[in-house]
Every structure is written in structure tokens, then in C-alpha cells.
Amino acid sequence: MAELTFSIRPAAAADFEAIQSIYAHHVLYGLASFEETPPDSAELMRRWRAIADAGLPYLCASENNGALVAYAYAGPYRPRSAYRFTVEDSVYVAPGQAGRGIGRALLRQLIEVCANLGKRQMIAVIGDSGNAASIALHRACGFELTGTFQAIGFKHGRWVDSVLMQRALGPGSTIKP
User: Fold this and answer.
1) pTM, whole model, 2 decimals?
2) pLDDT in tens, 118-129
3) Given CA atoms 25, 133, 86, 36 in this order, what sign does their dihedral have?
């Protein structure tokens, strides 16, 4: 296997110009996010702080030269207390960087960190049922398809599905938390 040319680390405030650029590309040209107007760096930092305040991971992948090429985080699945052991993942890779294993490395690290935090389930809400790369990434990391919301969003002039995938973390639901 080829030597990795990137490393994974926790996000820092200095990363948010690059994170905003990556996310803006996905908002403007893709269907992974159902946002239609890219938030600015300050808003993305506010979201990051909310994730950090919840004690959840927000990771970056950087080239050996320091350039940020992807990021991923796990946020609360829903705010109600019964969902406290479930997280939802998000993975965004910079344009031109797909297919290098960066997303897989980030997602595997998110899974490990969340399991170590005592989380029991991870949910993926994938924009667009045609997003074969994200579906394959999640499947490769142990997620199973649980359903599809048909035509739930309208973006770029068309109806868009959301694919739901799920995987257990640690012992999952085999024992009580």
C-alpha cells in the first residue's frame, strides 16, 4: 500500500477558512448538503464549537505540507435526551482529493473516537441516492442501509433523496449503556 500523504488531527480555529472553502464547494455544486447558500467561516466555527462543547470529535485531514484536504465530524443525531448515545457523521473531501482514502480514514477515526466516548450508534444521512461514493464509503466502514427518504429536498432544480445508513458502535444495543 502506498504511503499516506496526509495526517488526521482535531480541527483548530485556524482551519476554518479551508473548511469553509471545502464546504462551500459542496453546497454550491453538490447534493451532499441540503444547504443552498454556503455559511461563512464564523458560522462554521460556531457549529464547530457546539460540537466541541458536546464533547464530540471534529477532525481534519491535512497533507504533509499542511494543506487541509478534508474534514469530518460527529454531531448529535437529535437533541432529545433519548438520542444521547447516537451520533450523525459528516465527511467532506476537497475537490480533486476523492479516491485517496482520506474520507475512509476520517470516518474510521470518527467511529473509533465515538465508540470510545460510549456512543452506541452512528447514523449517516447521505444527500442524493445517486451519491455512490458516499454510500460505498459508509458501507466499507460497516454501515448498513436502513432506508431512503424519497424526494425530500429540492436543490439544483430537482428533487433529491436522502439515504439513511447506520452502524453500531462498540457493543451497540447488545447491552445497556
Assistant:
1) 0.95
2) 999 999 999 999
3) positive
